[in-house]
Amino acid sequence: MTSLTRTLLAASLAASFGFAAQAAPAIHTGPAASPIAQSVEVPAGADIIYLSGILPPVIDKTAPAGTPAAYGDTTTQAVNIFKIMKERLAEKGLGMGDVVVMHVYMAPDPTKGGRMDFAGMMAGYTQFFGTADQPNKPARSAFEVAGLAAPGPAMEIDVEAVRTKK
């Protein structure tokens, strides 16, 4: 039996018994001090999971509906969105380190002169990404938008995550 024949036979047996090749994890690149990845390379054979935009929950039910006060300050909103994101990813067997792309849409903040509160969002973001416990950082874009579909929240965030085959 030739070497090529043995290799083909082994591959055929592995495939028939469900032993698939394992995909490597995503590769996050960029300066260590940066809060975002410069790039993220997704390996062939990985599953991509898209999470729709997540809005923060109402935390003050006594505040007028549809007002920023009902959702808390920008940092509180960001932390609450990332907690929801973490739960939704966990339902899929994923974690925050599996997030490879993030889009942050931010509404004008009346307490910041009508500009988005980027610093407030970052204060929440850095509790979940680029930490000692979870060092992976996604490729990310942040946008100031005229408004969100729901009045009151400061932001909406959507992500793409990757599941590698095991």
Give a quick precis of the structure.
With 166 residues, the protein is an alpha+beta fold.
The DSSP helix count reads 3
Secondary-structure element pattern, one letter each: HEEEHEHEE
Cα Rg: 21 Å
- Structural class, by secondary structure, is alpha+beta
Mass-distribution shape? globular
Distance between the termini: 31 Å
Give a description of the structure.
- By secondary structure, the protein is α+β, with helices and mostly antiparallel strands.
- The chain is 24% helix and 22% strand.
- It contains 3 helices and 6 strands.
- The protein has helices at residues 3-16, 74-91, 118-125; strands at residues 27-29, 39-41, 47-54, 99-106, 139-144, 155-163.
- The strands form 2 sheets. It has a 4-stranded mixed beta sheet. The protein has a two-stranded antiparallel ribbon with strand order 1-2.
- The longest helix is centred in the middle third of the chain and has 18 residues, at 74-91.
- The protein is globular, with a radius of gyration of 21 Å.
Secondary-structure topology with pairs:
Blueprint: H1 3-16, E1 27-29, E2 39-41, E3 47-54, H2 74-91, E4 99-106, H3 118-125, E5 139-144, E6 155-163
Parallel strand pairs: 4-5
Antiparallel strand pairs: 1-2, 3-6, 4-6
Keywords summarizing the entry:
single chain; 166 residues; alpha+beta; four-stranded mixed beta sheet; two-stranded antiparallel sheet; 3 helices; 6 strands; globular; disordered N terminus
